[in-house]
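Q: Hi! New to this. If I give you a protein sequence and the SMILES for pyridoxal-5'-phosphate, can you show me the bound structure?
A: Yes, paste them in.
Q: Okay, here:
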Amino acid sequence: MASTGQKEESKKFMSKKGHMSTYSFSQKDAPLFENFLAYTKKGIAAFHTPGHRGGRGCEQLFRRWGGRFLRLDLTELKGANLEQDPDFLQTQAEELAAEAFGAQKSYFLVNGASIGVMAACLALREAGQEILVARNCHLSVVNGLILSGLKPVFLPPTWIAGLPCLPSTAVVQDYLRRYPRAVGLFLTNPGYHGIYGPLAEIAALCKAQHLPLLLDEAHGGYLRYIDPCIAEASSVGADLWVWGVHKMMGSLTQTGMLHIGPDFPYPAQLEEALQLLSSTSPSYLLLASLDSTRRQLYFKGRKMFRRAAKLGSILREQVKELPGLELIEPVVLPAGYGLDPTKIILSLAPAGWSGLAAETVLRRRYRIQPEYADRDYLYFFISYAQEKREIFRLAKALQSLAGTAESAWEESAVCPPPWNNRPLAQTPRSAVDQPSVYLNLADATGRVAAGLVAAYPPGIPLWVPGEEITPSMVEWITAFQQQGGYVRGLKNGQVKVSSA
Ligand SMILES: Cc1ncc(COP(=O)(O)O)c(C=O)c1O
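A: Thanks. Here is the predicted structure of the protein with pyridoxal-5'-phosphate bound:
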């Protein structure tokens, strides 16, 4: 059966002479997605993994919820690909993505942006060498540092309204001068909260020093559709950048892309790293979702994200005058920084709510779930697929909360997270390699961390392996937990420290 199907695919995807490479796809095609869909419609009897047989074998409740979708849960199969070159369709789909998004080469990721970030660190690996990393990085960067053995030199972020954002140009300039042998500069832009910074100036500094610029753009990639003047990795000529496409760009959860520019110096090492970290059974459903999303963004991205921005501005208008509510507005940002209009950050502190307490009430009483909350703020991510009435529903709920002071919340002194500015005692890799022990949080002060600890979201580590734990860090986590925040890296209230 597979070979009959294969002939049909061959006709579709090969030239008359039978050379696959002579067939060229355009942005109107979604080769991986379409061929995969065609395959699933053929009624082929399956004698391969996965064993649930298109959902027939799933538990009844799961099957009922999954429906036809479960038929798409497949991995690499000859019939769903080309017999002569199993990677052909994926490569074609990735080439279309590179063309659409201004990259030299793009890779589809099916284990989140995290795997792209870790592969980037591995590609630069020269154990013990220094890499410049913005301190507001996601924990996947630290995991990449553990895997690669690189030695991070952390750059302090710019603090805006208590939120850590892209380091300033002056800070980057200073670190480039002090660490001329660094193997790269790894920055997060925009941050989880949607604030972006002076990327073009920073990219120019890196170019002048021939230093690879790597960007975690997990929360970006679509700003170009809102305003083409906003600097993004591709427009400033970054060397490598990672997208969490699943976050707000519309593909299925866990999908991402990794892009490289023409001058990325380690393309072969990067491919090896991706292979090292990737599953040998990637979900074709997830890959197809990326292919389809690329086509959608190419043709409709502007319309989609201008709609999201418009909905964001409607929400702002609805709540900005409320006396019990403080909205972070783009006008409060320093020069060079801007706010993604689809991200709404607000505080109900004037009405007596901590962010975490307000989130609970929004969920329980109003059935509204923000992206996340912390001590101070609530964060709402507005999607292009949001319904307008949901915006009004949220505005109404916020109006009620802003007018009722149910919780007597008082600001505590411990804010923002008290990062340690001293150099690491050890590299993250050597710290996790050494003998370690779990200690109660209260007893960890003064010890060298052997694991990382991060408030999640946003997943920015409070400390990383190899860093000395200070009393103010312990105090910060304790207060954060007491307010209902979730901390990653704690095991039954204990943290991992070096016992060497
Ligand atoms: C800035 C940043 N980078 C990377 C990641 C990892 O993304 P993923 O969850 O897709 O692996 C996240 C996740 O929240 C993030 O916020």
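A: Residues 1-11, 14-22 have pLDDT under 50 and may be disordered. Let me know if you'd like me to explain how to read the tokens.
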